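User: Structure with aspartic acid, C-alpha cells only please.
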Amino acid sequence: VHCLSIDSLSDGHLAELLANAQEYALDRRAGSGHLAGRTVFNCFYENSTRTAMSFALAAARLGAQAITLSVEHSSVKKGETLADTARTLGAMAPDALVLRHRQNGAAEEVAALAGCPVVNAGDGTNEHPTQALLDALTLLQRFGSLQGRTVAILGDVRHSRVARSNAKLLPRLGAEVRLAGPPALMPDGAGPSDVDSAIAGADAVMMLRVQRERLDQELDDAPGEYLRRYGLTRERLALAKEDAVVLHPGPMNRGVEIADEVADLPGRSLILRQVANGVAMRMAVLEMVVSHHP
Ligand code: ASP
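Assistant:
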C-alpha cells in the first residue's frame, strides 16, 4: 500500500487512518514500538517545516528510524533523474519513502520504481493527501461528524495541492466543500467564485497561502489589497456560522490571506491543532503503509 492521493485510499483505509490517528492524538505514546527496527527515508525536494518535522517525529514515536536525504547535497545536483533516484533509494530497501517534489505525479512515478511503500508529502500542485487527512481529523474532533457540514476553502486554489486533496476527501466524509478565491488564482474553467458567498453560513473556513513561488505572473496587488478583497478578516469571518472554526495548512502570510487577530483567535483558530494532528496522522499513515508491506 502507498499513500499517493486521496482516490488511492479505500474507505477502509480512511477509517483505519482516522481511528488510529485519533488514538495517537489523544496519547502520543500510544504507538511506541509499533514500527521498532523499521526505517523511513524522508526526501524533501521542496521546502517544508511542518510536514518534514512531523514525519520525522512520527517515525520516532513509532520506534522507527527516519533518515533524511539532504537534497542540497544529493546527486540531483549532478543531474540524476527522479527515476534513477527512485531505483537507487529503493535498492537500499527502506520500509517506506516519504517524498515531496515540485513535479505533479512525482510520488506516483517513484512508487512505480522504488519497490517500497511511498507516501506523497506534496507533489507540485497536485495532491497533499496527509494534509487533507489531518484536516479531516481536526474537523472531526470538533464536529463529531462532517455529515451536512460546510467547509469553505479560500484563496490560491489554483496552486493548492491542499485544496485539491481536501476537495476529494471531505465530501467522502459527508461535508460540502466550497472553493473560492481571486479570479487569477482559481483553476482554469472554475467559473465565477465569490469569497463572501462561499463563507456565508460555513462551519469551517480554510485559508490558503498565496503561493507566489508558483506564479508565472506577479499578482500586482497593492499593500493590504489582498486582505481587504479576499483575506480572512474578522468582518469576513462574521459571515460564517457564529462559532465557525478557522484552518490554515501553513505557512501563513499574516496580513495577506489571514489577519493576525483571526489566525490567533482563541478557541476558533485550529491552526496549531492541525499541526499537532499532523504528527498523529503521519504516525497512522506510516504504520499503515509499512504494516501492509510484505
Ligand atoms: N504547506 C502546504 C503545502 O506544502 C501549503 C503551502 O505551502 O501553502 O502544500
